[in-house]
Design a protein that fits this description.
elongated; 68% helix; 11 helices; 8% strand; Alpha-Beta Plaits; 5 strands; 5-stranded mixed sheet; alpha+beta
């Protein structure tokens, strides 16, 4: 997904820059900067070649080519027209954009674009070109009013690229953080919270009128042995879905292999009613897999937290109730 979006963005940026090149070519012609008119021709070809590279998925080569030429372009236009036209400002956007490009390249194919070295090269060209103009003056002396207009235009373009790419980078980082958080908190098979994250929730739990319950799939080993582990995974996912839908306001996790733990609002009476409904839903659910009729039941042990009770003790009491239900023949609710 990131690669597709990056390719689309690169197409758009490449197209915009190509139009800018033709616009600048017309401007250079209007101010009789003959060398820059001719210099714009290979510049245009660079971005035409860029479309081919983007289409072929060679984004790393594209970035290297464009950055090399942009650096040369910045230096040449600065030497020819002076820094009063603002072409040297592009290095201010080129350097941070290079680091954004390196991040995107890493996300796509784990390649490094050596942003530090490229940035040093850009800085060197900036210093040489502006230093030359400061000492010798520009090749073409042109109207300062025109220079002021171009300074403003180039400044706007530089800021636009900086804002756009910085926003793009921040969004990518946020997406990555959300993905990492999901990986850290979610059980991959069932889509429920994992045990580690559930412990964080339980340790931060301060409210009253909350009950905790542990559900265990009865004789789950028999399902795996008789129908295979793929069927076992199907049963786990199916029961997880039932629990999630039946406890939409609760925190639910996959506690162990075939165990689920959930924390919901309510006292013992409410808790028993909710858990009994869940037990019946699982018992009546058709869990057929690959044409084979599969039925499963769950046993649930629950406990309402006592005053000043530790989390470990709270879980232990729910677990003890679970085993009471198992001892009574399974497919039971005990609170």
């Amino acid at each position: 997904m990131i690669q597709a979006r990056t390719v689309k963005l690169t197409y758009i940026v490449n197209t915009l820059i190509l139009f800018m090149v033709f616009g600048l070519m017309a401007f250079f012609n209007a101010i009789d900067a003959e060398f820059l008119v001719y210099f714009s021709i290979p510049t245009a070809f660079i971005y035409i070649i860029g479309f081919y590279l983007i289409n072929r998925g060679k984004l790393s080569i594209y970035v290297w080519m464009v950055y090399l030429w942009l650096t040369i372009y910045m230096g040449v236009t600065t030497v020819c027209l002076g820094y009063s036209f603002g072409f040297h400002l592009y290095c201010m956007s080129m350097i941070p954009i290079m680091f954004v490009s390196e991040y995107m390249a890493y996300k796509i194919d784990k390649k490094s674009l050596k942003a530090v070295y490229v940035s040093l090269g850009v800085a060197a060209v900036y210093l040489v070109s502006t230093g030359y103009v400061s000492y010798f003056g520009p090749v073409y002396e042109r109207d300062e009013k025109v220079a002021s207009i171009f300074w403003l235009m180039n400044s706007i373009v530089v800021f636009a690229f900086l804002i756009f790419y910085t926003n793009w980078l921040i969004k990518l980082i946020i997406q990555s953080e959300e993905k990492l958080r999901e990986i850290a908190h979610i059980d991959k098979l069932t889509g429920l919270y994992n045990r580690h994250y559930m412990m964080e929730i339980l340790n931060s739990e301060k409210g009253s009128e909350r009950f905790l319950a542990i559900a265990d799939i009865d004789l789950f080993k028999n399902i795996n042995d008789n129908y295979g582990h793929n069927c076992g995974d199907h049963v786990l996912k199916s029961i997880a879905k039932i629990l999630k839908e039946g406890l939409d306001s609760a925190d639910i996790c996959r506690w162990g292999g075939e165990e689920f733990l959930f924390l919901a609002k309510g006292d013992a009476i409410t808790g028993r009613k909710v858990l009994e409904n869940l037990r019946k839903q699982v018992e009546n659910e058709d869990l057929s897999f690959e044409g084979k009729e599969i039925r499963a039941t769950i046993t649930i042990g629950g406990a309402v937290r006592e005053e000043n009770e530790s989390v470990d003790k709270w879980i232990q009491r729910a677990d003890e109730k679970l085993y009471v239900g198992k001892g009574k023949g399974r497919n039971k609710v005990e609170i």
